[in-house]
């Protein structure tokens, strides 16, 4: 995609066929899209994310959506992605974030959480991305449909369909993630009856409970209060920590 490529937001249905759209619906769609882009931008810039949606000013300025008036004879709104004059690296940053946003939308459309995880590795940010995609579509009962169109690539994202797929992916992503991992921690307690050990995980100082095979018991007795490595199925939190 070119740096200055126009994107389109097309409304059809009630009001839009008369070349009008309720301001509240237009605003909600653009605000949700803008927030979804901020999620991608924060990931790209490796900036922290506030649960209160407080976006750093430099991110807001660089990655803002710039809208034009609707095209004559329709309710299609052209808009550009970002301000390339903010700093010397802005053109490359905008190109990368725009590409990642498009690929993220394609991953949602294709119900491909693995692909999205490579774009947004942080699970909390992915959940917010799903939430904002759901909010892009006009509400059911409004009588309106909306499509996001990328003219140069021919990609069309029907926002009602995207909303449903994002909702499904959000439910999957919200479930605790379990991975096969090796975890190193300090052995703090052993429950012989339950065959369970407790270790303190150094990165978070969190106590983790682990179940062991009886064949490992002698090894555990030889290493009280020492660092041990445990390999098994690990439940990860929202920050991908055990």
Individual helix count: 7
- Structure summary, number of beta strands: 9
> What is the rounded Rg?
24 Å
Q: Into which percent range does the helicity of residues fall?
A: 25-40%
Shape verdict = elongated
Beta percentage is 25-35%
> Main β-sheet: number of strands, strand sense, barrel status?
5 strands, antiparallel
Short summary of the structure?
With about 240 residues, this protein is an alpha+beta fold. The chain is built from 7 helices and 9 strands.
SSE blueprint and pairings:
Layout: E1 7-13, H1 23-45, H2 57-62, E2 65-70, E3 76-81, H3 90-109, H4 113-119, H5 123-136, E4 144-150, E5 155-158, H6 159-174, E6 177-191, E7 196-201, E8 206-211, H7 217-221, E9 227-236
Antiparallel strand pairs: 1-3, 1-4, 2-3, 4-5, 6-7, 6-9, 7-8
Feature tags:
242 residues; alpha+beta; five-stranded antiparallel β-sheet
Structure characterization notes:
The protein is built from seven helices and nine strands; from the N terminus they run βααββαααββαβββαβ. Helix 1 packs across helix 3 (90-109), helix 3 (90-109) packs antiparallel against helix 4 and helix 5 runs antiparallel to helix 6. The two termini are 39 Å apart. It has 242 residues and is an alpha+beta fold. The protein has two domains: 7-174, no CATH class; 177-236, no CATH class. Strand 4 and strand 5 form a beta hairpin. A five-stranded antiparallel β-sheet has the order 2-3-1-4-5. It has a four-stranded antiparallel β-sheet with strand order 8-7-6-9, with no helix packed on it. Helices cover 38% and strands 28% of the residues.
């Amino acid at each position: 995609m070119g740096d200055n490529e126009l994107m389109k937001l097309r409304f059809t249905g009630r009001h839009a066929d008369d070349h009008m759209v309720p301001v509240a619906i237009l605003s909600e769609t653009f605000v949700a899209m803008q927030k979804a882009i901020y999620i991608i931008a924060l990931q790209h810039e490796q900036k922290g994310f506030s649960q209160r949606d407080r976006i750093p000013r430099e991110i807001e300025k660089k990655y803002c959506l710039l809208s034009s008036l609707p095209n004559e004879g329709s309710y299609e709104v052209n808009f550009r992605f970002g301000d390339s004059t903010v700093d010397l690296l802005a053109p490359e940053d905008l190109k990368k974030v725009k590409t990642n946003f498009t690929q993220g939308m394609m991953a949602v459309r294709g119900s491909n959480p693995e692909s999205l995880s490579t774009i947004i590795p942080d699970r909390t940010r992915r959940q917010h991305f799903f939430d904002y995609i759901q909010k892009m579509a006009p509400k059911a009962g409004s009588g309106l449909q909306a499509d996001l169109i990328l003219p140069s690539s021919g990609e069309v994202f029907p926002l009602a369909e995207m909303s449903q797929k994002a909702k499904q992916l959000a439910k999957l992503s919200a479930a605790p993630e379990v991975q096969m991992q090796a975890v190193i921690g300090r052995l703090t307690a052993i429950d012989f009856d339950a065959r369970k050990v407790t270790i303190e995980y150094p990165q978070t100082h969190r106590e983790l409970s682990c179940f062991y095979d009886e064949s490992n018991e002698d090894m555990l007795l030889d290493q009280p209060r020492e660092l041990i490595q445990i390999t098994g199925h690990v439940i990860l939190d929202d920050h991908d920590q055990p």
